[in-house]
Amino acid sequence: MKRLHACLLAGVLASSSVQVMAAEQAMIVLDASGSMWGQINGKPKLQIAREALATVLEGVPADMELGLIAYGHREKGNCNDIEVIIEPAAGTGPAITQAAANMKFLGKTPLSAAVKQAAEALRYTEDKATVILITDGLETCKADPCALGTELAQNGIDFTAHVVGFDLTDAEGKQVACLAENTGGQYIAASNADELRDALISTVVQPVLMAEQPALEEEPELVLPIATLETDASAAVGADIEVNWTGPNAENDYIDIVPEGHEATNGDLAYIYTKQGTPLNMRMPAKPGAYDIRYIWRGTDNKRHVLATTTIQVADTEAALIVPDSVQAGSIIPVEWNGPASKDDYIDIVPADQKKLGNGLSYFYPARLEDGKPGELKGPTKPGQYQVRYVLRASGPARLVTSVPLTVTAATASISIPDSAEAGSLLSVFWTGPAGQHDYIDLVPADQKSLGNGLSYFYPAKSEDGETGELKGPTKPGQYLVRYVLRGGGDPRMIASTPLTVTAVEASLMAPDNVSAGSVVTVSWTGPARKDDYIDLVPADQKKLGNGLSYFYPAKSDDGATGEVKAPKKPGQYLLRYVLRSAGPAQLLSSRPLTVIAASAE
Length: 602
Hints:
The protein has seven helices and 40 strands. By secondary structure, the chain is mostly beta strands. It folds into five domains: 6-212, 3-Layer(aba) Sandwich (Rossmann fold), CATH 3.40.50.410; 228-315, Macroglobulin (MG2) domain (Immunoglobulin-like, Sandwich), CATH 2.60.40.1930; 321-408, Sandwich (Immunoglobulin-like), CATH 2.60.40; 414-503, Immunoglobulins (Immunoglobulin-like, Sandwich), CATH 2.60.40; 508-597, S-adenosyl-L-methionine-dependent methyltransferases, CATH 2.20.130. Strands 5-4-1-6-7-8 form a six-stranded mixed beta sheet, sandwiched between helices. Helix 2 (45-57) runs parallel beside helix 7 (193-212) and helix 5 packs parallel to helix 6. The chain is extended. The N and C termini lie far apart (94 Å).
């Protein structure tokens, strides 16, 4: 499409021969979502959009009734954040420019709902109406822009939507272009400031001017280029086939697959851009039937055209699953299977009443196994009725090919520990249980309900003798719980627990009251001497544990009763501390003051 630049536009607007229709109405829909903070060449997209709007709106015909709707400008994460900022009226250019300059860019991208609201504000079912959408993102609020375009075109008197895709990839642009194409409008991609300005000129101003100028000459008839397609006459569902093509190979040309007889240039099941070369690999749909493979060309009229079509028959395929009748919760389920093993096919396990595809509790990809080797699923942690499913994923929607039922029985476990243990001590745990790969036994405060976040834990599956393990005792006295947690498909579940009382331990420190700066100080101590306990020296006013000026580990003491720290060179008041370290936060067990005096001159 030929571009109009700002200088050319100014000349056109100044010409006395241009007569503008007073009743022309249009609404700009501006994307004010958080993604507009992204940058192009070091400049935020929102700033580029503001400046482009300001430039273009200076040239809007005086009698054109123009309004502004924005979305995502007031709240984060709210799909209802859509507002008419400026009602359609003549002479609103400066107000729209100012509104865009003051706008915040925060939220989601409910572009479909915003365009529909704009159409309704223009009374599109009663009057001619034009909406210009400026967006840098795709729909994020569970709506279908393509379907909306069709609806507005069918219900409107003379409705047109133009879409300016700002900094969208080819694939992203294709997903919103249908909104324009289904209403007879234009989709224009803009990747920088100049292209955005030109796109706005083409969609906001040029249509009005062109509508009112007398036809100087007829537009030449569009000549469609020649394209060809060659591929197999039939293929299995989910199969990959080669498609050989010839054609213009323009920038946005692509090969797509659609149900046989589908005429629209949107709504395809899959597509591949021709710039990837020939032949192209295309995956067949998951549903058997007749399909058309098409060469799609974006013409000089900025619309998409079908240049070539070939039909292919997609045949069904068989699949089978063999699993045990029942398994214990959390266990590994062996799955023998037969099926097409397309690249993205999967076998999963879900509750027996689940109809929706996806959201499996556990799954694997058959195509990633060697030579049809059996696969494995993690058994659900919750007993009950389940189904194992083979799901075919290909072009278009995924399809359930086959499924088999499975009963999951309860798993049991037991934990045996002493009734009480000293703070920081190692706790021996005797256990029984399924010992699944990711099962764990942990220690938590007695009132903790959530799973995970244990103060200490071990994996039964890694136990050398299959019946014992060790936990680090908490540093803080109190009531605790030792738990066996089953992990498999679905949420983890606690299947056994037993209480534990943690009792306090004591420590003492003995050292000279006064020592010389820089001297070595011998410290006598008593205490639990856990592996990571330490005795350190810190300034007297230091409350934080750690960061000692000097320290030693009681557990590494040669005689089990003494150790050494080095006095700081700076005279002053200091503190010797015995710190217990094990599960949970470190605890200060004992401390005593130490005065450091200046060393005497020799």
